[in-house]
Specification:
Layout (H helix, E strand, L loop, with lengths): L1 H65 L7 H5 L10 H20 L9 H5 L18
């Protein structure tokens, strides 16, 4: 009788554990389902907003095609002058003068004697190389 009681307790404990695990899985799935429904609703709303905006833009474009504006219209007068993009001639000249002065001072600067000479660098030989795997495109 006692063995039967111990066996029944173990079976009950195991069944309760399985039930608890199943409830946990169900709760997790419900939570994920609710989150996905919310995301879907948000994306649907966003799609509707984008469709409405696209329709507005199409209507505006159609209206502009049907009623071209004359050059003398008030809308033309409100337009700003196009802005010049780039460097002014004065600024370019100043940069060129600055670059020339810097280049001339750099040419006068001598490298320290402990640096490797040009002849020694030219004498360097390749000792080993490593091929890059095909799936690696850049090295950070």
């Amino acid at each position: 009788m006692r063995e039967n009681l111990v066996k029944t307790r173990k079976e009950l404990s195991h069944a309760l554990y399985q039930h608890d695990a199943a409830c946990h899985v169900i709760a997790t799935l419900k939570k994920e389902n609710d989150e996905l429904k919310e995301r879907l609703l948000n994306s649907d709303n966003r799609c509707q907003e984008l469709e409405q905006r696209q329709q507005q833009l199409q209507l505006q474009a159609q209206a502009m095609r049907e009623q071209p504006q004359a050059i003398d219209s008030p809308m033309h007068e409100e337009c700003e002058e196009p802005q010049v993009v780039g460097l002014s001639d004065e600024l370019k000249k100043q940069m060129e003068n600055n670059a020339e002065s810097l280049i001339s001072t750099r040419k006068q600067t001598k490298a320290p004697s402990e640096y490797t000479s040009k002849k020694e660098v030219a004498a360097f030989k390749l000792q080993a190389s490593q091929k890059m795997p095909a799936d690696i495109q850049t090295v950070d």
